[in-house]
Design brief:
By secondary structure, this protein is α+β, with helices and mostly antiparallel strands. 29% of the residues lie in helices and 23% in strands. It binds one RNA strand through strand 1, strand 2, strand 3 and helix 2.
Length: 595
RNA sequence: GGGGGUGUAGUUCAGUUGGUUAGAACGCUUGCCUGUCACGCAAGAGGUCGCGAGUUCGAGUCUCGUCACUCCCGCCA
């Protein structure tokens, strides 16, 4: 039988005791990390949320307690009462915070026995992801994961304290809500009371927070779950958490300043780092031109350089034709990397192909000549121009991508990041924040043959661009901004449209007529017509932010109970089939039944 | 929807050209051990080689299918 807790009350956590506590009588509770039974003396590393303390059972101290301790196994849950004693001078453990002391046990309570765990509960043990997810409660006992989850708590506390100080109000918005048009697939929830009708889980509280501004709450925030039924990635889960906020009577600068203050508070609290603000800004156009991506990693150089004008008449038809057809030829000079082998170049070509680049041209700059499959196609004049534009010196290798602008930028931008990884140009522990501003308002969807909001349909266009909405929609810049950390988008927002006239103008641009608009979000248009303050906001991905703060490469490691890549939960085995009775109540027929 | 990787003991992995009884480490069990801290020593248990077909005298190994986990492309306003 196991022991009951009774009136036993913990006096200390397992990381608290030090030299100064020697001779104190203490009560600790925790899990058995390790047992070292020497036949006589038994050592146990007792672990709780805070840390580990070594406890000792010595038959000379109490024969009965020692005898009982012999049955202890890994992950048993114990309560122990004993005296803090100094370890012998040559037995100190400098690797443990509590390594100067140990607790000599007088009373032992075994609250729970435990099955042998499926994997060792230690950071150094790499269990596979599926076994870790299946036994998530064991995985969460590991110090690293526990540290991440606790850091997440510190971050949300820092956020709440900071925003509360700034006068923000935490307001909950509905989880059972209306399907929003455009954007990701919704998770649907059938309504029993309204058979045949469905709620959608929110992809973001976007419309509700705008309504709260119209209602006059002025500054709103919420740390809130959002849902998107799309395929997963290392940094994408079907349910994820946003730090969502919205403010009235503010412009972009004021929102970015508040957001920067919040990020500073988080990093101070979690990492004890003092970030420098304001964060640098770069326009969307500059980001694409110099780094190829709208989320540039500015921890290293390797900037992209356009050479379309130089190669437009070159004998190398691939380049010339791309320029003729409105494409872009851009290059990266990898300084001193002419030593790349054929194999390395092939790998990089394959890498670029993932992003649709049809090829990766290269030139190695040697002392005497250019070594390259394409060098022979260039005139001396073109070579000289390339040399000057790209600052080519002996020992360099330069990579070219020639394609439509979108592909050239994406492929070369990704190649830039890959080169930096391979060349180890990125120092750990560097946090590089960059605001990307002046996004286009729209882009053109080739498959659906219509304009689409790049951000969302409620984003305000730049005032000076409003006229172009009819004449040249793609040239319209928006008042949207993203915050990028180390090349990863961690947040984004915009000033919203607060005029109903402008809102319907933008909706028209998107091919949504008044009837459809009323059907889909008439309530918003109505609200906008009822006295809407100028307003805007921003939302941060808490999971991604924590991933970067914790040095993890998957957000699953900062989420207590994450889903697999197929959006299932290995622990609870959700999702699962509904019973026929449930389905009947909901008036739902499942067409794809298992045979 | 597409491409790549992985799947062998409780866990992490090895397993050669298709060939005798499928191995290692850790963990686990038992015994010994009073100063370990990833304790030590000795012995032992533990396998539907993800699953299903096929080729073969013979399959962990080859082929096809399928499932799971994972990385990426598409997708994610």
């Amino acid at each position: 039988m196991t022991d009951l807790l009774g009136n036993l009350k913990r006096t200390h956590h397992c990381c608290q005791l030090r030299n100064t506590d020697i001779d104190t009588h203490v009560i600790l509770m925790g899990w058995v990390q390790h047992r070292r039974d020497h036949g006589g003396v038994i050592f146990i590393d007792l672990r709780d949320k805070e840390g580990i303390t070594q406890i000792v059972f010595n038959p000379e101290n109490s024969k009965a307690v020692h005898e009982k301790a012999r049955d202890i196994r890994s992950e048993y849950v114990l309560g122990v009462k004993g005296k803090v004693i100094a370890r012998p001078d040559d037995m100190l453990n400098p690797n443990m915070e509590t390594g100067a002391i140990e607790v000599l046990i007088d009373e032992l309570y075994i609250f729970s026995k435990a099955k042998t765990p499926a994997f060792l509960i230690e950071d150094r043990v790499e269990a596979s992801e599926s076994i870790r997810l299946q036994y998530r409660y064991l995985d969460l006992r590991r110090p690293q994961l526990k540290k991440n989850i606790l850091a997440r708590h510190q971050a949300t506390m820092a956020i709440r304290n900071y925003l509360d100080d700034k006068g923000f109000v935490d307001i909950e918005t509905p989880v059972l809500t209306k399907s929003t048009p455009e954007g990701a697939r919704d998770y649907l929830v059938p309504s029993r009371v309204n058979q045949g009708e469905f709620f959608a889980l929110p992809q973001s509280p976007q419309l509700f927070k705008q309504l709260l501004m119209i209602a006059g709450f002025d500054k709103y925030y919420q740390i809130v779950k959002c849902f998107r039924d799309e395929d997963l990635r290392a940094d994408r889960q079907p349910e994820f958490t946003q730090i969502d906020m919205e403010l009235s009577f503010v412009n972009e600068e004021q929102i970015m300043e508040i957001a920067e203050g919040m990020i500073v508070a988080i990093f101070k609290r979690v990492r004890d780092l003092d970030l420098v603000t304001p964060f640098p800004r770069i326009t969307y156009d500059d980001a694409l031109s110099r780094f190829g991506l709208d989320r540039p990693d500015l921890r290293f150089g390797l900037e992209l350089c356009e050479v379309s004008d130089i190669v437009k008449d070159a004998g190398f038809k691939v380049f010339a034709n791309v320029v003729k057809n409105g494409g872009l030829v851009k290059a990266i000079n990898a300084k001193g990397c002419a030593t790349f082998t054929r194999k390395q170049i092939d790998e990089l070509t394959e890498f670029a192909a993932v992003y649709k680049a049809k090829g990766l041209a290269w030139i190695k700059i040697k002392e005497a000549e250019w070594q390259s499959p394409i060098a022979k196609f260039f005139t001396d004049h073109e070579k000289e121009a390339l040399k000057n534009r790209l600052d080519l010196e002996p020992g360099d290798i330069v990579f070219f991508v020639a394609d439509q602008p979108k592909i050239t930028n994406e492929a070369l931008g990704q190649l830039r990041n890959e080169l930096a990884r391979r060349l180890e140009l990125i120092s750990d522990d560097t946090y590089n924040f960059t605001w990307v501003t002046h996004f286009p308002l729209l882009d053109y969807d080739e498959t659906e043959k219509r304009y689409q909001a790049l951000h969302h349909p409620f984003t305000a266009p730049l005032e000076e661009d409003i006229e172009k909405l009819t004449s040249d929609p793609l040239a319209v810049k928006s008042r949207a901004y993203d915050l990028v950390l180390n090349g990863i988008e961690i947040g984004g927002g915009s000033i919203r449209i607060h005029s109903p006239e402008l809102q319907s103008k933008v909706l028209h641009c998107l091919g949504i007529d008044d009837t459809q608009a009323n059907e889909k979000f008439g309530f918003l248009l109505d609200a906008l017509a009822s006295g809407a303050p100028p307003h805007g906001g921003i939302a941060f991905g808490l999971d991604r932010l924590m991933m970067l703060l914790c040095g993890e490469d998957s957000i699953r490691n900062v989420i207590a109970f994450p889903k697999t890549q197929k959006a299932t939960c290995l622990l609870t085995e959700a999702p699962s089939k509904a019973s026929p009775a449930q389905l009947q109540e909901l008036a739902i027929k499942v067409s794809k039944l298992e045979e």
